[in-house]
């Protein structure tokens, strides 16, 4: 365990928005500026704390790196879980329900620290962009903060029960925000669709997690020496019981081979192999994996701007993160079996999303489907199962989060002034709203993978990872074996990126360039200072990271150390 | 590190070369580009009509400041380049060791991508051309864009463009090269679409960006593959490691492994990048449309930067493309790798294909655009047959005369517009304050149409003479012009291969000779239509350039004209009759450098020049080994250019000096003079009269002329073959059928089933359960009435309730978990 703060910083990150949200509910709803002030203050505090976590962890990178090298060099048993435990910083562990092995256990490592930072950025941006909301401001802000808290909770959770707790906590304010403040035309349909998709997905994942939980319990009951070994080398706290939802706990069992037992006595069908698709795709629903993506564009479009931002920017990452954390990290054998075919789904994601985005007339749907396309690259990075590609996936999660939030911010600003999202009837807005135009172009360049922006440093490692993986991965169905197909997939995925360029340019051209129709949009003027802050907050990281990727990439690499160690240290 | 240290250390100096223009970009964008809202000036074509609404106009002072900043940035780059060049020229054994420095940028797994700069002989040559040409373009731009309200922004964009090109040139690895490459793509988008109110301009920008983007993504895949295989992208690490290259050439590719080696697959992906960037068939379609941009941008794209970048990358990566082939007969028999054949075919075909289109164009800039495509084809084809030095040589000379031609044509257009305004003012009494109306969509008169010109040589002599020189250089007018020497060298190499009976060389020789003939012909046609005879329109009658604009626009022409004539003399073959010895004295080659001499003497083609070594035996052991690898010493001296640039490659790969052969030279003479003569006979001797039809139509027949004039209908074919199907596919198949139909359809069906079950249960409920439970609503109503009292709004009461609830939940938990523990233990 590395790094500590003088106070429980991770809990502070989760509970500050909860407290602020509850506080807001007690305020007179007419005092809107006070409400906004409180919301903004709490969001800024949370962002500051997130920066603290991020850079605090960044300061520990050398220590973590040395520790991983030492452990890798020793080549002892249960190395991966030890690596994971030792790499966690700012841990807090409070026993919640001892008999069930449920504890409130949170921590930060290289994988979630960037996500924590991203959430903080989007939270502040979301509050700022909702500044003009006058309809039930109090409830809106309260629900929004609750949503932020839920998202944070999932990212920092190390205990799976805590993870699911916050996962569900995030969904309900989301539903209310969309249904209550969304686009009148589709908000009820979209809110219901979104909630059902995510709930069903999470329930499926939960079943998988419960299987892991009980299997690990049985395994430890039969092999107490494994538990003892983990306690001895410091991975698990003394007095750990057999049953536990703690991720480290389950990881020890997984590493010791608990999930490699055959199911129903069938040869080759192990627990890991059977349950990986449920866990990965269950969470993958939230990451927009094809064909479970359809909630997302509808949800994005129906949601109010701030919610779209957090929704596409952070919530989709939540799915990908959980799929990696719970699916790949705890069921590595399953990942090795199933990701080679899941990669086809990710390819469809990339190309299919881009194609649809290309033909949308609704400004917001374009961005919605572009998210589907870009999230496909994240899953594709996971599917490489090597350090390079997965690092790219991690970078893409952050990059896409900031980028898509920026996009939705821009769309919201245009919509607020033009009152339409019909692309062909817009035009020439860059002259009226130069900031928004430039920000949109920056986002567009990021999304098409232009060097100098964060999209490039994320996509390039994914491509390299795919080439690297191509020789090692093959897929056999009966007598038919498919080899080297990753290289074909990456070439086809590149097609998606070309289409991305096409639709980004098309939208930029039709919305921001061309002739401006003053008669149609008499009120369109430049944006407020608050909105500029949003654009800078979300746009600057795209450039900073694009120019200086070492701010983040080594951290993600170290975070992936345990995951790769679980997969046999590739 | 202090700035001083950077300037004094030649290894660090290259970092600073791109900084000037890049800094200028940021300064202009962030500081000096200050706009204010002003009433739209009447007649200002840059803004559509807003019913007199105020529009942002840049203040005059900010324009002056922006131009100054832009100039300063590029001047600094030029001066630093000159310092670097002087240092490089004075360096012993330059090429074996180079100026370089680097740092880690993005760690990927066990290896890290490095960012670094490097100056080797090839870079030095590029540094001679790029900053100079860019500086000329900047000077010219100040006059060209006088009166454009967005002049500041224009200077910001071209500064970024120049900075990106310089970044690309000094890059020591493919990744940084790619960064510069992409930023240039972005700049071309911004600049081609600079007058974005005009739909055709914006469409052209999108077309340019998307077309090159297709190629760039494939190139990026090639880079990724190279990196995945070798773990580095540094030029010198990869390209100077012959074992690594050999390994890549022997290893089957990851796809199509049966017929391609890994090296070949990477190479072809990289070459596709150039096919897009340097506008080779079939991705050439964007370049002619790029004429929608301001003319300095065309000069920038066509000469100094963008398209040169593509060929530069090919030259840079040549050893990888060559891997597995044996072109110079170092011992073994002739072999040519797939990527080289690919280049030879693409380049040779494009050279001829584009030249045929250029013949039938009437737009003064479009002729030049197709000539660029054709000349780039020459370079690509030259690389395809291994003529490394000749390709680099032609790249440089072409940059000089093509920049000259574009800027001259811009001056012609400007003069024509001036004439147009004159005509308007005198006939329509229509006051048009905006002097510069090249992009005015409402103008019916096309100032770029050569059919409207004629007789301009007397109106704008200072444009005519440079244009003539540039044109002759493009046509390869023998002996005097730069274009002749570089083109001749390519033909000489192709001829040598042809005599050996090599297929690719034969193909290249035939296509290039034909293309060179057409080039001379259309150049003379262009010169004659523009300048000869009497003005065909009233506008041409009044065409003129005056004042400071004339100086700013024509001074660079004169300077460039000098280089369009003389730049070729550094590469005159030493055994060329009369000229060879003369220029060998003017540009002496140092004799002391042993390694180079080994290469110089590298045996001729196919091992035929097995001449005995005569001197240079002072080689050290390692260098001696190189010399032997090279297959013995010839007695040919390389010219200055060849001598300087060869050490970019390792000795074993260095291209040999080919012996003088009179046949290709005669061909060069014949096609250049023949083409010019035919053009002269048709167009100059009897200049076109007003309204007279192009004699070409009579000669070719109208159908064929139409095909050429419409560029073989390739744009239409692409629209039909790619654009529409993609639209249809994404709209109908993906969006309507799969997404809305299939996936949502399934979901909605499930929802419908559930609704149905729900309705069924509801009915059951009404009949069955409600009958029983009619009392329940009453109960609920009573409960609510009670509960309303609880909601009294008093906080103490709330707290009490919350506490009670918490205790209750706690008890439930304790109770249930206790039971569970017992059962688990049991």
Fold and architecture overview:
The complex is a heterodimer of chains A (570) and B (826). Chain A is mainly alpha-helical and 570 residues long. Chain A is 72% helix and 4% strand. Chain A has 22 helices and 4 strands. Chain A has helices spanning 9-25, 32-59, 61-74, 79-87, 112-129, 137-156, 160-181, 187-222, 224-232, 247-255, 271-287, 295-302, 305-330, 332-358, 363-384, 387-418, 429-432, 434-447, 454-470, 485-512, 529-547, 553-566; strands spanning 89-97, 102-108, 474-477, 480-483. In chain A, strands 1-2 form a two-stranded antiparallel ribbon. In chain A, strands 3-4 form a two-stranded antiparallel sheet. In chain A, a hairpin with a 2-residue loop joins strand 3 and strand 4 (480-483). The longest helix of chain A has 36 residues, at 187-222. Chain A is globular and about 80 Å long. In chain A, 66% of the residues are buried. The mean pLDDT of chain A is 86. Chain B is 67% helix and 4% strand. Chain B contains 34 helices and 4 strands. Chain B has helices at residues 3-8, 13-16, 19-32, 60-89, 121-144, 151-170, 174-192, 199-230, 235-239, 242-250, 262-277, 286-289, 295-304, 306-316, 318-322, 338-359, 364-384, 388-427, 456-459, 461-475, 482-500, 503-531, 538-541, 547-566, 579-586, 594-600, 621-629, 640-645, 662-684, 695-700, 702-709, 714-772, 775-790, 795-825; strands at 35-39, 54-58, 99-108, 111-119. A two-stranded antiparallel sheet of chain B has the order 1-2. A two-stranded antiparallel ribbon of chain B has the order 3-4. In chain B, helix 4 (60-89) packs antiparallel against helix 5 and helix 5 runs antiparallel to helix 6. The longest helix of chain B is centred in the C-terminal third of the chain and has 59 residues, at 714-772. Chain B is globular. At the A-B interface, helix 14, helix 16, helix 19, helix 20 and helix 22 of A face strand 3, helix 7, helix 8, helix 32 and helix 34 of B.
């Amino acid at each position: 365990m590395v790094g500590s703060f003088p106070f429980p910083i991770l809990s502070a990150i989760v509970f500050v928005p909860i407290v602020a949200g509850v506080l807001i509910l007690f305020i007179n709803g007419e005092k809107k500026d006070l409400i906004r002030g409180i919301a903004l203050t709490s969001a800024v505090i949370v962002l500051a704390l997130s920066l603290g976590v991020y850079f605090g962890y960044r300061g520990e990178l050398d220590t973590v790196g040395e520790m991983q090298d030492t452990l890798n060099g020793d080549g002892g048993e249960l190395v991966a879980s030890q690596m994971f435990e030792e790499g966690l910083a700012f841990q807090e562990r409070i026993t919640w329900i001892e008999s069930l092995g449920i504890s409130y256990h949170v921590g930060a490592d290289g994988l979630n620290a960037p996500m924590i930072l991203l959430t903080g950025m989007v939270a502040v941006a979301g509050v700022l962009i909702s500044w003009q909301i006058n309809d039930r401001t109090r409830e809106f802000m309260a629900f929004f903060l609750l949503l932020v808290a839920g998202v944070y909770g999932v990212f920092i959770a190390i205990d799976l029960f805590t993870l699911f707790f916050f996962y569900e906590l995030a969904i309900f304010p989301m539903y209310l925000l969309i249904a209550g403040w969304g686009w009148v035309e589709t908000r009820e349909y979209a809110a219901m669709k979104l909630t059902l998709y995510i709930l069903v997905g999470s329930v499926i994942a939960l079943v998988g997690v419960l299987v892991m939980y009980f299997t690990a319990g049985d395994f430890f009951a039969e092999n107490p020496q494994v538990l003892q070994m983990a306690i001895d080398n410091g991975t698990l706290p003394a007095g750990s019981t057999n049953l536990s939802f703690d991720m480290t706990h389950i990881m020890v069992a997984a590493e010791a081979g608990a999930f490699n037992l055959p199911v129903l006595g069938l040869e080759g069908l192990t627990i890991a192999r059977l349950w990986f698709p449920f866990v990965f795709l269950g969470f993958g629903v939230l990451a927009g994996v094809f064909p479970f993506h359809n909630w997302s564009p509808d949800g994005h479009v129906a949601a109010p701007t701030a919610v779209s931002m957090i929704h596409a920017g952070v919530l989709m990452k939540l799915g990908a993160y959980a799929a990696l954390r719970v699916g790949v990290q705890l069921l590595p054998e399953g990942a090795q079996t199933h990701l080679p075919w899941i990669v086809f789904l990710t390819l469809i994601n990339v190309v299919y999303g881009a194609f649809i985005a290309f033909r949308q007339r609704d400004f917001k749907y374009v961005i919605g489907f572009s998210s589907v396309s870009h999230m496909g690259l994240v899953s594709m990075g996971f599917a490489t199962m090597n350090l390079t590609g997965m690092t790219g996936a991690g970078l893409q999660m952050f990059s896409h989060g900031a980028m898509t939030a920026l996009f939705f911010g821009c769309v919201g600003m245009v919509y607020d002034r033009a009152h339409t999202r019909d692309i062909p009837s817009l035009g020439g807005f860059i002259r009226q709203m130069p900031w928004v135009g430039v920000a949109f172009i920056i986002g567009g360049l990021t999304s098409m993978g232009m060097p100098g922006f964060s999209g490039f440093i994320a996509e390039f490692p994914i491509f390299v990872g795919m080439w690297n993986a191509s020789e090692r991965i093959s897929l056999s169905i009966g007598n038919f074996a498919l080899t080297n197909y990753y290289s074909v997939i990456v070439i086809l995925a590149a097609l998606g990126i070309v289409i991305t360029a096409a639709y980004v340019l098309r939208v930029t051209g039709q919305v921001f360039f061309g002739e401006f129709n003053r008669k149609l949009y008499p009120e369109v003027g430049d944006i407020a200072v608050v909105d500029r802050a949003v654009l800078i907050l979300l746009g600057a990281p795209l450039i900073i990271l694009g120019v200086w990727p070492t701010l983040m990439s080594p951290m993600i690499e170290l975070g992936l150390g345990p995951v790769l160690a679980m997969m046999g240290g590739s | 590190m202090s700035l001083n240290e950077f300037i004094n250390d030649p290894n660090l100096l290259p970092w600073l070369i791109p900084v000037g223009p890049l800094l200028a970009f940021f300064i202009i964008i962030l500081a000096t580009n200050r706009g204010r809202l002003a009433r739209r000036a009447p007649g200002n074509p840059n803004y559509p009509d807003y019913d007199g609404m105020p529009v942002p106009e840049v203040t005059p002072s900010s324009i002056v400041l922006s131009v100054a900043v832009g100039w300063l940035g590029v001047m600094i780059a030029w001066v630093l380049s000159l310092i670097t060049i002087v240092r490089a020229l004075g360096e012993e054994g330059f090429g074996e060791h180079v100026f370089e420095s680097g740092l880690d940028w993005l760690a990927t797994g066990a290896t890290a991508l490095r960012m670094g700069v490097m100056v080797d002989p090839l870079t030095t040559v590029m540094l001679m051309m790029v900053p100079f040409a860019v500086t000329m373009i900047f000077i010219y731009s100040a006059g060209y864009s006088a009166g454009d309200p967005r002049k500041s922004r224009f200077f910001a964009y071209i500064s970024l463009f120049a900075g990106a090109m310089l970044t690309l040139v000094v890059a020591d690895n493919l990744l940084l090269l790619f960064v510069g490459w992409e930023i240039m793509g972005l700049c071309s988008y911004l600049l081609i679409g600079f007058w974005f109110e005009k739909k055709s301009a914006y469409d052209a920008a999108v077309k340019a960006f998307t077309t090159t983007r297709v190629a760039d993504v494939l190139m990026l895949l090639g880079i990724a593959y190279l990196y995945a295989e070798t773990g580095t992208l540094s030029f010198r690490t990869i390209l100077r490691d012959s074992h690594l290259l050999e390994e890549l050439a022997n290893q089957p590719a990851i796809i199509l492994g049966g017929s391609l080696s890994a090296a070949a697959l990477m190479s072809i992906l990289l070459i596709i990048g150039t096919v897009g960037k340097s506008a080779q068939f079939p991705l050439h379609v964007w370049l002619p449309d790029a004429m929608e941009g301001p003319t300095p941008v065309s000069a920038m794209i066509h000469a100094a930067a963008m398209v040169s970048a593509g060929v530069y990358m090919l030259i840079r990566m040549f050893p990888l493309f060559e891997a597995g082939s044996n072109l110079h007969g170092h011992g073994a028999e002739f072999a040519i790798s797939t990527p080289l054949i690919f280049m030879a075919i693409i380049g040779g075909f494009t050279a001829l294909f584009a030249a045929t289109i250029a013949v039938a164009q009437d737009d003064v800039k479009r002729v030049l655009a197709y000539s660029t495509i054709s000349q780039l084809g020459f370079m690509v084809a030259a690389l395809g047959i291994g003529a490394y030095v000749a390709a680099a040589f032609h790249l440089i000379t072409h940059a000089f005369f093509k920049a000259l031609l574009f800027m001259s044509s811009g001056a012609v257009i400007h003069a024509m517009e001036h004439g147009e305004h004159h005509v308007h003012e005198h006939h329509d009494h229509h006051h048009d304050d905006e002097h510069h109306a090249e992009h005015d969509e409402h103008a019916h008169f096309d100032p770029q149409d050569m059919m409207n010109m004629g007789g301009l040589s007397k109106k704008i002599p200072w444009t005519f003479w440079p244009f003539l020189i540039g044109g002759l250089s493009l046509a390869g007018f023998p002996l005097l012009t730069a274009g002749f020497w570089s083109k001749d060298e390519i033909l000489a190499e192709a001829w040598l291969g042809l005599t050996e009976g090599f297929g690719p060389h034969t193909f290249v020789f035939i296509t290039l000779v034909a293309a060179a003939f057409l080039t001379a012909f259309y150049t003379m046609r262009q010169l004659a239509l523009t300048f000869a005879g009497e003005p065909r329109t009233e506008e041409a009658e009044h065409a003129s350039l005056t004042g400071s604009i004339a100086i700013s626009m024509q001074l660079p022409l004169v300077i460039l004209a000098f280089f369009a004539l003389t730049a070729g003399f550094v590469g005159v073959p030493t055994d060329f009759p009369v000229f060879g010895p003369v220029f060998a004295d003017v540009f002496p080659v140092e004799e002391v450098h042993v390694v180079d001499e080994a290469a110089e003497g590298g045996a001729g083609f196919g091992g035929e020049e097995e001449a005995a070594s005569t001197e240079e035996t002072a080689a050290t052991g390692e260098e001696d080994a190189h010399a032997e690898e090279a297959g013995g010493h010839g007695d040919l001296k390389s010219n200055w250019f060849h001598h300087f640039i060869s050490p970019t490659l390792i000795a074993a790969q260095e291209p040999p000096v080919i012996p003088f052969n009179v046949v290709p030279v005669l061909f060069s003479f014949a096609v250049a003079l023949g083409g010019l003569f035919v053009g002269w006979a048709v167009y100059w001797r009897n200049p076109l009269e007003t309204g007279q039809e192009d004699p070409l139509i009579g000669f070719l027949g109208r159908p064929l002329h139409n095909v050429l004039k419409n560029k073989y209908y390739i744009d239409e074919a692409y629209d039909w073959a790619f654009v529409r199907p993609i639209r249809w596919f994404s709209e109908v198949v993906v969006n309507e059928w799969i997404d809305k139909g299939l996936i949502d359809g399934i979901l909605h069906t499930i929802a419908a089933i559930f609704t149905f079950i729900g309705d069924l249960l509801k009915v059951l409920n009404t009949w069955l359960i409600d009958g029983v439970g009619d009392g329940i609503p009453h109960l609920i109503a009573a409960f609510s009435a009670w509960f309303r009292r609880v909601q009294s709004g008093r906080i103490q009461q709330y707290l009490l309730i919350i506490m009670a609830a918490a205790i209750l939940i706690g008890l439930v938990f304790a109770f249930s978990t206790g039971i569970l523990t017992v059962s688990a233990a049991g």
